[in-house]
Amino acid sequence: MTAREFRYGIVPPAQAATLSGRELLQGMIEGRFPAPPITQQLTFWLAEVGEGTAVFEGEPGAHLLNPMGIVHGGWTMTLIDSAAGCAAHTLLAPGVGYTTVETKVNFSRAIRADTGRVRAQARVVSKGRQVISAEAYVAAADGQVLAHGTSTLLVLQGAGNR
Amino acid sequence: MTAREFRYGIVPPAQAATLSGRELLQGMIEGRFPAPPITQQLTFWLAEVGEGTAVFEGEPGAHLLNPMGIVHGGWTMTLIDSAAGCAAHTLLAPGVGYTTVETKVNFSRAIRADTGRVRAQARVVSKGRQVISAEAYVAAADGQVLAHGTSTLLVLQGAGNR
Amino acid sequence: MTAREFRYGIVPPAQAATLSGRELLQGMIEGRFPAPPITQQLTFWLAEVGEGTAVFEGEPGAHLLNPMGIVHGGWTMTLIDSAAGCAAHTLLAPGVGYTTVETKVNFSRAIRADTGRVRAQARVVSKGRQVISAEAYVAAADGQVLAHGTSTLLVLQGAGNR
Amino acid sequence: MTAREFRYGIVPPAQAATLSGRELLQGMIEGRFPAPPITQQLTFWLAEVGEGTAVFEGEPGAHLLNPMGIVHGGWTMTLIDSAAGCAAHTLLAPGVGYTTVETKVNFSRAIRADTGRVRAQARVVSKGRQVISAEAYVAAADGQVLAHGTSTLLVLQGAGNR
Predict the structure, then answer these.
(1) Residue of A nearest to D110 (CA)
(2) What CATH number has the domain bearing residue D115?
(3) Could you read off the pLDDT of D3-13 as tens digits, one per residue?
(4) Model-level pTM greater than 0.90?
(5) Is A154 helix (H, G, I), strand (E, B) or coil?
(6) Domain total for chain D?
(7) Which residue segment(s) compose the domain that C35 sits in?
(8) CA–CA distance from B160 to each of B6, B25, B99, B124 (Å)?
(9) If both were cysteines, with which of B4, B148, D4, D21 could B137 make a disulfide (CB 3.0 to 4.6 Å apart)?
(10) Nearest C-alpha of chain A: how many angstroms from C78?
């Protein structure tokens, strides 16, 4: 399966609000809901979700290079931010939203255009009533850690916004 | 000036090694060197450099949206990581490279497809022999802070790599 | 003024709840309220508060050393966390509390037992309804940056807790 | 075993340089080397080391309280910074030092004077030639996560300093 098989778009908020986070994300994986537009630009996609976990996969390439000729750290951060956010989202009931308050990423090894597909695996570390923290690791096919990071999420009850 | 006027590509490393960081970056601004490919995907560009400072501008749009219909935090992190890295790069002599060790970003306000052009302004906070830290702020046209963050860079003397 | 002139203790919550953050903190500076116990262990004290700003001072010493014989980074982090938290607290009305969600610190230069008094200056960068971020810089007497960091705070309305 | 049984001081650098990180740290646990002074102020101690791992224990108490009457986040950050740093140190050969470049901590649950002994368990996530990253989790006796964080360390070959 590659990123190119997906439809891109936004699930209407009124429809999304009827689903738990896990139902919504599972629907994206199965193609019943569109994948968000940013994933087309950056060739990555949601691959798996569980209870407090999420996995994204991404395909490096020449379109992602920074001035030094390696994949821009922003791509890696996008994978980590996505995985950590979705891991948290899997724990939220219908109508409950979240916003990412901050994300921090360590770049362990350079990712190159020909590194091959990478996986960003995330899990929730702590879930409070208002704050969730989740961590994510990006690894190459050989399992070596390429980057890792942590996100802090604010849970938004009802129509709440910070 | 918009992102669409740029040529995209990588400056050959042998050529880049003859230039100070500031000369290389100024050359990108002036169009004498190509802009890196990631900036085309993510509609942002280097706008200004100074001694230990750098400014990127970025154009939000529908191609950057996350599942909630707002601009993905990964885009904002890419701008901050780029601005902080280039601010550090302006202080490096020819033949001296750097790699970003980690970047951390706070998301203060949602960026929307119609937020309009944003600016990411960065400055070096501390420069040691091996480690540089720089901070960056992303602001809307009205000056309101949308996000802010810090990067830690490792200076690579000669052909060094970590 | 040194840390040794302070009374140490906790302001009773019922009394603290009648005061704005700034009133409470100004009362600590003026000695009308006790300084918190941790400040005695770690020889630091609140020196100034303003609208969204706070300054702590600290006295390094042999009691703060880590195994390498330099001041433990935990001391520096404590100053930054305190300054950032109090800068945010100055913006809160009576009865409104906060909790620090996360703090991240860059260590720029080693602090030694004989570095002399340092200052940690903090300011609020962004204030939302639920989330505040503040940054702080620790500097020596000569103004050189020794460390810097950012805290993210959650505002707790009424008796709320996360 | 409690913090009070330790001798406090600094291992002479010339002696420390003859030992691997793991030998030095194991010697502290066994009382053959003094514990660093900061651990007396903040009632915590090194409990275990392994290959790329370290565990600290700490005893909360009234001497650690912040103005809100809970244990200051600086204490928690000190445990995490210590555990992450020592986990990295266990991988270093004699004569090789390190310095912590940055530490980031999430505060998941309040620690109180009567929370009881906590454990900070750390492990190295990635080890490069110049940069090591390690993560640490602080847990109560019941295993609940109270805080977690990440440190980035710079390896110092010989007498190098950044």
Answers:
(1) A128
(2) 3.10.129.10
(3) 446 799 999 99
(4) yes
(5) strand
(6) 1
(7) 3-156
(8) 31, 21, 10, 22
(9) B148
(10) 20
